[in-house]
Amino acid sequence: MRRLQEFEALARRAAEEARIAEVRARGHVPPDCGPEIPEAPARGPVRAFRPMALYPNGENDWEQKPAGHMGRAALQVADAFDVMAAQAARRKAAAPFTPGQVAMGRWYRTLVERHAAAGLRCSSVEALRASSGGGGSFIDAVLRDRDAIARLRARIGEGEALSLRKVRPSKRGARVAIPDRALVDMVCLEDATLSDVLRRHGWAADARVRGLLRSALAEALDRMAGPRRRPDIAVIHL
Predict the structure, then answer these.
(1) What is the pLDDT of residue 9?
(2) What integer pLDDT is reported at residue 101 of this predicted model?
(3) For residue 97, which of 109, 87, 85 has the smallest C-alpha distance?
(4) 165: which DSSP letter?
(5) Tell me, what's the pLDDT at 236?
(6) Angle at CA 104, nearest 5°, toward 157 and 135?
(7) pLDDT per residue over 27-70, tens digit each?
(8) Torsion on CA atoms 158, 191, 93, 52, rounded to nearest 10
(9) How many alpha carbons fall within 13 Å on the CB side of residue 55?
(10) What whole-number distance in Å separates Cα of residue 101 and Cα of residue 107?
(11) Burial of 70 (0-12, 13-18, 19+ CB in 10 A)
């Protein structure tokens, strides 16, 4: 009986040590970032990057050099695009989204967060602008962000990234359709991966369906960027 109790105590201790090690691993700080950054599992996924800045090089030239503290790298909280890119890299697959699509998603998030941080409803903003005489630059900036967000959401459209129309009623189960707007908002604003979006809507996160959702998100981000103009073609007659 005593040996059994000792064995159970050792098993509990080993399980607790493994749990603590797993939690600490989530907050691991790469050596390139230096010891000043503490391990913080609650920080969530992060990515290391090296800050760069321009420094004088001679009298009339500039040179780009690392600008981190003591030449070290820094940490940045990873968003859904970083997480999905890391997952693809582990599978030795290509990045799921182009740099332009990622930049568009992050710009949309910046606009929405900045507009929400203003702390004013649209009606309040317009009332303040009307009562301020010439109108302050702050109010004008808030209104510009509101209009920009409205344009981007209009470009997203009212379509569905994944529809149930082609799924037999007997096989639909708890699955619900995924609108384009919900897909964009969940990935860009809530840091949900494609698998997270599928699971929250009752879909199986298999490779085929995830590929369809990735294509739908890529197309939505391209629409948000607006129409692409063909560059001017110069014809030279020799």
Answers:
(1) 82
(2) 96
(3) 85
(4) T
(5) 40
(6) 85
(7) 788 888 888 888 888 777 888 888 888 888 888 899 988 888 88
(8) 120
(9) 6
(10) 10
(11) exposed
| 9 backbone dihedrals φ, ψ, rounded to 5° | -65, -40
How is the chain split into domains, by residue range? Answer: 83-118+143-229
| pLDDT at residue 237, as a whole number | 38
Q: Which pair of structure tokens corresponds to residue 80? A: 């859904």
CA-to-CA distance for 36 and 95, rounded, in angstroms?
Answer: 32
Among 31, 120, 112, smallest CA distance to 71 is for 31
Among 221, 212, 219, 169, smallest CA distance to 194 is for: 212
Per-residue pLDDT tens over the stretch 121-174: 555 555 555 555 555 687 888 889 999 999 999 999 988 887 756 555 555 557
β-strand 62-66 against 52-56: which pairing, if any?
Answer: antiparallel
Structure tokens at 53: 């800045």
Q: Cβ(47)–Cβ(31) under 8 Å?
A: no
In the chain, % of residues over pLDDT 70 = 83
The 10s digit of each residue's pLDDT in 89-111 is 999 999 999 999 999 999 999 99
Tell which residue, 195, 202, 163, 194, has the closest CA to residue 179.
163
Per-residue DSSP letter, 55: E
Q: Which alpha helices (DSSP H) does the chain contain, by range?
A: 2-26, 80-90, 99-117, 122-131, 137-156, 169-172, 180-188, 194-200, 207-225
Return the bridge partners of 46, or none: 77
* Confidence at 238, pLDDT banded by 50, 70, 90: very low
- For residue 51, what are the contacts with CB-CB under 8 A and spacing of at least 6? 66, 67, 68, 74
